[in-house]
Amino acid sequence: MTTQTWIPVRYGAYVTCILASCIALALTTLSVWWLAIALPALALSALGTWDLLQPRHTVSRNYPVLAHFRYFLESIGPEIRQYFIFSDTEGRPFSREQRRIVYQRAKNTLDKRPFGSLLDMDHPGYEWINHSLTPVDHSHTDFRITIGSRCAQPYSTSIFNISAMSFGSLSANAIRALNHGAARGGFYHDTGEGSISRYHLEGGGDLVWEIGSGYFGCRDEQGRFSETRFVENATRDAVKMIEVKLSQGAKPGHGGILPGAKVTQEIAEARGVTAGEDVVSPPSHSAFNTPIELLEFLDRLRELSGGKPVGFKLAIGHPWEWFAIVKAMLETGRHPDFIMVDGGEGGTGAAPLEFINRLGMPMLDALLMVHNTLVGTNLRDAIAVGSAGKITSGFHLAKTLALGADWCNAGRGYMFALGCIQALNCHTGRCPSGVATQDPQRGSKLDVPLKSERVFHYHRNTVQALGNLIGAAGLQDASELGPDHIIQQSSQTEFRTYRDIYPFLEPGALLQGITGYELFDHYWEEASAREFGVPSSVIRFSRNPVR
User: What is the pTM for the complete model shown?
Assistant: First the structure.
């Protein structure tokens, strides 16, 4: 079905009001009672016209008149919102409280709440940060870290940035708004594996260029990696770091096909493919096959880019494959400048339900494994570690940093700042907020100056919230956050710190073989720097062992 066939549905209420007012006004010549219909219809027609002209609410611009029914339900109160708009069901990936925080901070409105907490503070699983009697003022602090200190062009980044979301998944105006907001706030915008589009370059924001298995933006005609094309993009001033995507949290180990009908001229231009032809993203890379080859590939990218920080993103799956990469670092002396850990709860425009719910390690567990492995091999100080997965608030930042991350990225939080209402139509192209669509009539309704302002405010207010939290805890810097600062209630009569809940390796423990951690003891020795193979112990206990 073409996009145009949906226009009457979106504008149906508005057009109906106009027609009703015209007919009713004409019939007033027969009876004055027709004014009872004409006047309300005229008022709704005026409201619909205002909806089309105002820039603040993209949903109203795409659904004039009709959108106000949704806004009415939202305005009634928390009870109605809970059951009709923001119900916390399995199909809604974010809670009411999380979305409320994002919307208020993006609109730069007060996030104060009367009558105390809405959370059940006596419920097992409740988490908090203990405060100090000697607090510190961090209300105007911009927390930053430097990545790639050994590179010719190291990069100083904010502690909170925009996760990978490609042009093609998001609309042109959504990309514009994100990039303008990032430029104003001094944080980076990850391109996603769809490469660098013209819209990524308009706002002047810093870019992290993500390269996936399709090598978009750096591929030859056969879809293989092209050094020439890579240099053209990697040496752009806007590109600050290069990130090779090994896997992503939302659909790890899953390739994809972008049908030719969706490959517009703009998408083809950004990805280096032919417009109108199917584009395949293979499940795995063709530029390397072993852990050592991966590290050699990263070193080559660093050299070709002129010395910019180069790293990789992965969602943790088989632990022995991650251990194999670290063993390759120890054996060769090569290592990435950074690692982005993507949690299994990460989002995407569309993925099989089993992949979304049952594939990939959750973010905190994956982050802890990466952090522990690098600490246990004395590599942690040489490699910066970022993390992403349902991070929307200052507290989410705090607990992720406490478990070992140096910085965090967010995707859906910034989408909410753009006006996403979680209509769950990302895969259909019928996004009512103009964020996740390639329909130019829908996407063009997203007002770039206004939404970029909200992206900026969301980032600033969330980082400020983190500063307020660690200041109340008496910490001088976000880097001082550790597992002792986050508390979790394990039962109605017991609470424990993250240090009590999670295992933490001592520096060099893996090299000395004294981890005391069953996962490392079981798989570390069998992992090989020369292959991503299955350990013999796994084969031995499989249902149909290879003979």
Answer: 0.86
